[in-house]
Amino acid sequence: MADSAPTGPLARFPEEWESAAVRLGGRAFHGRQIFKWLLARGVTDPASMSDLPKGLREALASEGELLPVSAAEVRRSVDHTRKVLVRLGGGETVETVLIPGVTGRRRGDAAPDAELDADASAAPDDDEDEDLAAAPGKVEPVRVTQCISTQVGCAMGCVFCASGVAGLKRHMRPDEIVAQVILGRSLLDEDEQLRNVVVMGMGEPLHNYDATVRALRLLSHPDGVGLSSRRITVSTSGLVPEIARLGQDFGGQIGLAISLHAADDESRTRLMPINKKYPLPVLMQALRDYPLPKRRRITIEYTLVAGKNDDPAEAKKLAKLLRGLPVKVNLIPMNRIEASTLGPPEVPRVFEFQRVLLDAGYSCFVRKRRGDDVAAACGQLALLGHKPKVRVDRS
Ligand code: SAH
Ligand code: SF4
């Protein structure tokens, strides 16, 4: 898998592990076993890789830490959302969030608020999910969506976003991106199952294209975590050439979420400087060109910021702009951030905006604010700095 992204051992593909195993004194097939230990089972201590020869286990251990991240803090919300502050090797922190769905054993418990009903996770639609129906009498696992980061900070400078205000510190490596999932999976409850990954944490994934794509290929490898690419959604502020590349590289199988946040160039540029480079007509063409499989839709994310993009007239423009595209719209009332006085509109105004889109025939959800009590909005926990461990128990 040739690309230019620098990487650590956790980002090796099985064939790369084959040669690494030989270099470490083992046989090629041991390499495939190592890949499975790491990605399928999440075992990162070579001493526990019981089907490897002792010498190989020791040689592997002498290569250094296989998991390049650790959980600096885990905050659990009353709605079971878990926000994990992830420490990278250089001491920097990013975040990953585990968002349990409402299907499965806990149905009814922490149910979505009736009014702010929502697609909390921007995960693929359940109506697109042919294996959703459980066998009678069988207890379904709680399906968890994990949100992962791709950069420390972000260079895109969106004015409502904590990561954008902070600026880009560095790109994450593919092994660090993958490690968030290995770590996240180890923090799941017994009745939970990782179902979807959304690349919506810190950073602009398509600005760190090679590392992100390598990580997604590893996560969707059938011998590893085994997430099919259609259970992965990448969210972007609209990097047009990379949207086309992603479409080509995965044949349109990766879900696409577009952070639109405005329906005209003037207001979008004010909120998102990237719009100067790729204005709306160019971005909309990229969406029309994305090789989306039949029955799938592009998610349009629209963060509602009071006084900036929340006018019902803007909703009408949005309805016009999206005409003819297979989309669903997620409205996200802005989460306040420390660095800005901007904030969300009043609740009735949010519903007024939603009503315009519903009346125009769109699927339109107001994203329920999951994990509010643990600062689960983009970039917030990582930017709070190091705070003492807080755990909110389920009781
Ligand atoms: N960089 C990518 C992915 C990470 S941001 C992107 O922008 O799409 C994930 C989503 O959170 C984006 O839609 C982003 O606009 C939104 N977001 C960022 N800060 C927010 C805030 N303070 N309140 C609500 N949504 C926010
Ligand atoms: Fe970057 Fe996305 Fe935040 Fe914009 S919203 S600054 S692109 S992380």
Structural class: alpha/beta
Question: In total, how many domains does the architecture comprise?
Answer: 2
Name the overall outline. elongated
Radius of gyration: 21 Å
The CATH topology of the largest domain corresponds to: TIM Barrel
Total count of strands? 12
Q: Helix share of residues?
A: 25-40%
What is the CATH class name of the largest domain?
Alpha Beta
Strand percentage: 15-25%
- What is the name of the CATH architecture of the largest domain? Alpha-Beta Barrel
Termini gap: 47 Å
Bound chemical compounds: S-adenosyl-L-homocysteine, iron/sulfur cluster
What key phrases describe this protein's structure?
395 residues; alpha/beta; DNA polymerase, domain 1; TIM Barrel; 2 domains; 10-stranded mixed β-sheet; two-stranded antiparallel ribbon; 13 helices; 12 strands; 17% strand; elongated; disordered C terminus; binds S-adenosyl-L-homocysteine; binds iron/sulfur cluster
Tell me what the structure shows.
By secondary structure, this protein is α/β, with parallel strands linked by helices. The chain folds into two domains: 9-61, Orthogonal Bundle (DNA polymerase, domain 1), CATH 1.10.150; 69-374, TIM Barrel (Alpha-Beta Barrel), CATH 3.20.20.70. Helices cover 30% and strands 17% of the residues. The protein has 13 helices and twelve strands. It has helices at residues 14-23, 28-40, 54-61, 162-166, 174-186, 209-219, 240-249, 265-271, 274-277, 280-289, 312-321, 347-359, 380-383, and strands at 69-76, 82-88, 93-100, 142-147, 151-152, 170-171, 192-199, 232-236, 255-259, 298-304, 327-333, 363-366. The strands form two sheets. Strands 1-2-3-4-7-8-9-10-11-12 form a ten-stranded mixed β-sheet. Strands 5-6 form a two-stranded antiparallel sheet. The radius of gyration is 21 Å and the shape is elongated. The termini are far apart. S-adenosyl-L-homocysteine binds at residues 154, 158, 160-161, 200, 204, 235-237, 259, 301, 303, 332, 334-335, 337, 377-378.
